Amino acid sequence: MASFFTTRLFFISLALVIIAATLPLYVSGYVLGLLTVAFYFGVFAMAWDLLFGFAGEVNFGPTFLIGVGAYTAGILNAQFGWSVYLCIVLGALASVIAGLVLALPALRVRGPYFGLTTLVAVLMLQNFIVVFADLTGGEIGLTIPDVITINAGANYWIALGFMTISAAILYGLSQSPVGLVLQASGQDPVQAGALGFNIVKHKLAAFIVSAFFSGLSGALLVFYFGTASVGTVVDVAVGVNVIVSAVLGGRRTVLGAALGAIFLIVAGEFLRPTGELATFIVSAVALLVVLFFPGGFLGAALSREARS
Amino acid sequence: MRAFQILIDGFAISALYALGATGFTLIFGVSGVLNLSHGAIMVAAAVAAWAAASILNVGTYAGALIGVGVALLTAFATYFAVVKPIQDSRRIPNEEKEIFVLTGTLLWGIMIQEVIAYFFTNNAKTVLPIVDGVVEILGVRTPKNEIFTAIVCCFVIALLWLLVNRTRTGKAVLAASMNPRGVTLLGLELTNIYVVVWAIYGILAGIAGVLLGMFLGVSSYSVGPLTASAFSIVVLGGLGSVSGSLIAAFVVGYLETLTAYLISPAYRTIPALLLLVFVMYIRPQGLLGRR
Question: Which of A214-250 are b and which e, b meaning 16 or more Cβ less than 10 Å from the residue's Cβ?
Fold first, then answer.
């Protein structure tokens, strides 16, 4: 772990964060707004990568965790008028509980069966939001009265700081002995168990950590947008974007997932002039990366470095 | 009166679900591939049939044939452009191929969906039905098209059963689903079997798509829900078990129809989802699945 502070990856990350931190001094509010959303998305993707890349759990429903965190925070603020910071903390806690609920089937079923269970969880949450429209705002969405700040630069710094801290914690965790046990239990649970590691405990921990960061990021995003809607934090399409980000950036790298998310959001914006074809182009690029560079951006870069 | 209506409507919907899900489960049983572009292929078939009949005026029969043909081509494209490269790739470790196939076919499905939306807009399209008019069955006014849908679905499924159980090719497919290595040892080329299975899948998905287009109408927004419903029917029945999927299709079809008629169409999908979660907890391998 200590040797990490002398690696090239560390210096590149540090340089990128420093450059990113100075951006508000010379770019427009529009670019800052875009990157703010991209940073929150980066945390979604990193949290997903911890579950998939390390624990080996194919979670098709990242938006279940994100949505529970986002809507809990939003509802507590909009319907009960609780303070923003309390709502954010409670949102993250609600998401942890959701993570535990999701972990129950994961300990019983594997692979595609677990994937479907998570997908169903998202669909149920979506149905719940639509059916209890009085509480949740239904399909139109929930308008949230409070925001953290309206200053674009401050919002940007909050998002950047949050992403950097999350990345440091998640990456550190993934490289720690706990991360290695998690990786082993994801790849061969029987053998990892035979070596004396408590797989259930490690997997539960992975679900809790992943849910905590997803929910926290979802709650922060809601207070940045000022609304919570199915289309932005719950829809299956949002979950697909999170998964594509992580695979694009390089699974099992954690940091790559954040890069993938930023790329996906910025590329989507650059392609906006192409109108309806934007989604097509982004999907096609992602498919090509999946087919020809299965390690993703960071995976390809790291393997080249390892070779040289 | 209402009971008969639920019985008849439910049967047509269930038969359609069954047809859509059989191909999906067949591919999984034989090659372990979960094809998440399934909904996109069905919609492509329906939109092609609609475009051929309504824009090119080729007639309903030729239109339906064109629809099935397009589904067949799309299924082959899915196999050769997405699934096979991933299966053959040396850079992807074997235990991760499953998630790569899932991601790859998901992206491919989105691409098909976007192409359809770009050329034919997002509007819902209803394919002109092959048979017109209504008949009265047990006091229920039923469109003839609904009966036609049910008959075609049952006929095609029966044909599939004959193909798999009574022909040499079908037996090879069955053998491959039981033990791929054993089949290769007997001198059969596994790739050929996969191509046959994808062809069967393309035709089944095409017929299901065209019938769906005639019965309920489709738009590029139906892609996700169609994939999700096929996926849940197949998991409910047990992955890879064709008879399990058939039973599950009827359970889900009737459950949805009952909810839509007796409670509210808005809650249509909820009981089926609850049932799915329940089955996952008490019997994770599905109704007729093997572990």
Answer: bbbbbbbbbbbbebbbbebbbbbebbbbbbbbbbbbb
